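Quick review question:
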């Protein structure tokens, strides 16, 4: 099932349809930031990415995968996903540590996943080398949010690099 917790919070955002890289796995209960690879196919952002193309609206279910924990694109590279590309969009994401109001405004990087293996995509509270997202709010300001959830905006879009 697609995440009901981690999502785009901004209504009426600009989205576009993208082909997804073959066999790409999106963990349902995590953030869904993507980048376009050299062939123009959407793939999961991993640690050390320097930019973000957008946020994938991950379909429900398994896709071509074998686990309820993630959706997997088909092996032919013909799966399509919708991607939020709105520069004003805000997203609720999981973080690798707890935060307080003092963290608002901080730029942060990805800490996980190391590869597109279907594990949760998280943001690193303590790192700002790539500065891909900026914290704009606390997850605790939303029903169901915790101190290790954050509201972020994309800081560095792929087109900006």
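Suggested answer, residue by residue:
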């Amino acid at each position: 099932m697609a995440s009901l917790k981690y999502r785009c919070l901004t209504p009426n955002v600009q989205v576009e349809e993208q082909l997804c890289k073959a066999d790409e796995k999106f963990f349902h209960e995590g953030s869904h930031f993507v980048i376009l690879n050299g062939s123009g196919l959407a793939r999961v952002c991993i640690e050390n990415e320097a930019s973000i193309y957008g946020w994938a609206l991950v379909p429900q279910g398994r896709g071509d995968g074998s686990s309820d924990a993630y959706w997997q694109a088909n092996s032919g590279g013909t799966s399509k996903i919708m991607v939020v590309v709105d520069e004003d969009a805000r997203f609720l994401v999981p973080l690798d540590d707890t935060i307080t109001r003092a963290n608002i405004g901080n730029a942060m990087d990805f800490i996980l996943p190391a590869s597109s293996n279907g594990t949760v995509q998280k943001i690193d509270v303590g790192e700002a080398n790539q500065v891909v997202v900026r914290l704009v709010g606390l997850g605790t300001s939303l029903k169901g949010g915790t101190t290790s959830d954050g509201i972020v905006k994309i800081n560095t879009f792929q087109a900006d690099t």
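Why it works: Residues 5 and 121 are 14 Å apart (CA to CA). The chain has one domain: 15-160.
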